[in-house]
Design a protein that fits this description.
- The chain contains 6 helices and 2 strands; from the N terminus they run αβααααβα.
- The chain is mainly α and 115 residues long.
- The protein has a two-stranded antiparallel sheet with strand order 1-2.
- The longest helix has 32 residues.
């Protein structure tokens, strides 16, 4: 299906005429990149290591585990974030389509292919 205008996409999705397929791995990478997650993770992990080296092992371990948890939560919720943001923002919708993270299909043809 060719790229729909944002207004038609929102109306069709809410009416149930369209099905949205989101690449989970692609969405995780897309959202991580947009949030600059590597630039957040690196200082957090550095602080954790510095605390551990200075003797504050528990604080270092807590920050290290917190950083890993943050990364996991961002990646686990990225597919829902992409859909919600695509419905709200035309610019984000176009970026997600261009990146191949979001694919819009006709609900009837998608159901026919499955069964």
């Amino acid at each position: 299906m060719s790229a729909l205008p944002h207004g038609e996409f929102v109306a069709g999705y809410r009416a149930g005429r369209l099905r949205v397929a989101i690449d989970r791995r692609g969405a995780a990478d897309f959202v991580s990149g947009r949030l600059l997650l590597p630039f957040v993770m690196l200082p957090l992990l550095g602080v954790a290591v510095a605390l551990a080296l200075t003797g504050a092992l528990l604080a270092g371990a807590a920050i290290f585990l917190g950083a890993l948890l943050l990364r996991h939560l961002v990646r686990a919720s990225s597919h829902g974030f992409v859909l919600a943001r695509a419905l709200d923002s035309e610019a984000f919708y176009r970026e997600a389509l261009a990146a191949g993270v979001l694919r819009v299909e006709d609900a009837e043809s998608a159901a026919a292919q499955r069964g």
